[in-house]
Structure formats: C-alpha cells, structure tokens
Amino acid sequence: MIAKAFQGQPCDVVEPGQPFTSADIVEYFWESKDFEALPFELRSVLDETLQEEEREIAHVLKHRFPSGSKLSGEGARQFGVSEKRAEAWQSGSALPFKSTPPQFARKPYSSVYTNLSTLILVCVEILCLLKLGKAMPWKRMPWILSPTAIIVKASPFEDDSLKKRIVYDCTASGVNPHLAQHADMSLPTILRLLLSIGKDYFMAKSDLKDMFYNFPVRQAARTGPF
Length: 226
Hints:
This protein is of the alpha/beta class.
C-alpha cells in the first residue's frame, strides 16, 4: 500500500537555481481513501495530516510564504544582528553549492517502517511540523530528495517522554560533497571555558530551542555552473 502511494507522488522536479513561485510547488497528491485499509490509529493521523496540508496550501497560495515563517529581519536588526544575517533571517539562507549535485530521490529508510508504533511516531512528527507551518506538501519535487529517518531519544521534557527528530541523510543523496566549504567553527571545551573565567565570575547559557525549525532556506539564482 505504501509503495502504491509513492507511485502517485510528483515526478516533475525543480532543478537547482531554477526560479519558481510558491504556487508552482504546493499541492497535495494523495487522498484519505488511498489508505482506507490501514489501521485506524494510523489512518486517523493521516486524515488530520491531509486537513493540515489543505490549510497550509491555502495559506501559501494566499500569502506566498509558509505560515510558520515568523522570523523578523527588523527584529533581528534591533538585537544588533549584522545586516547580512538579518536579511538571511528574513528572506532565507541559500545553500552554497560549488557544483551541481546529481538528481536524487529516495524513499525513507526502512527503519521508519520497523513497526506500526514507529511509523505512527514519524507521521505524528510530520503532522506537528505541518501544524507549526514548518513543512508543506509539494506537487513538484526538489531536484534532491534525501532519504528520511527518525531519531527517538528519551526526554523528560516531552509529553510522552520521547524526543523525536526527523533527519535527512545528505551524504546518501550526494549533497554534502557539492556544498561549498566553510571554515570549521568548533565549540570550546568545558576546560577551556573554565580557564577563561576569572574569580567570582558567573556563567550562563541560552539555548535557542528548535531554531532549525524557524530558519528559512531560499532559492538562490544560479550563477556559473552552480
């Protein structure tokens, strides 16, 4: 049934550097009836997912951007963020390719389908991203579609005591070797931090929770061979 569903996915692709508008890429390509034979617990999640897709599609077509785009470039400037970074927060940050990656599309890893409970966890997490406006369905696929996996860890801060993350394997899709190189930026070790702290100093840290959910990636114009 899942294999049949994948046969209905979009076959047209948006190539790197090709200009497009939101209206060119958003639209769902499946219906609830496609999964009528699935267990009720899973099918009910998919029914709600379809409703959220319809809501998000309507928002994107009306406003030209996902409903979860909440970062403000102007607000970033008021915090003293550099103009370059403030603009990236507002319009999105381009992935710098040094060459064009090969076209690639692959289904999620088989671990996603290990058992019914794992598959439901994956579907619920995707539904959560839809509700947050951080994901949207496509009627045209990106040139590169990396295989999907899920990482589940114990966490006392989640309602169900499980921390779930949807991850993409950009090595398997061939993206990583084509990304432009940047200087490494390593975090200091705890010993280096202790050596840098003077007498009677205090130290605190702030964690921008789920920041990667908020940072947009924009479509950059193609330059040269990229």
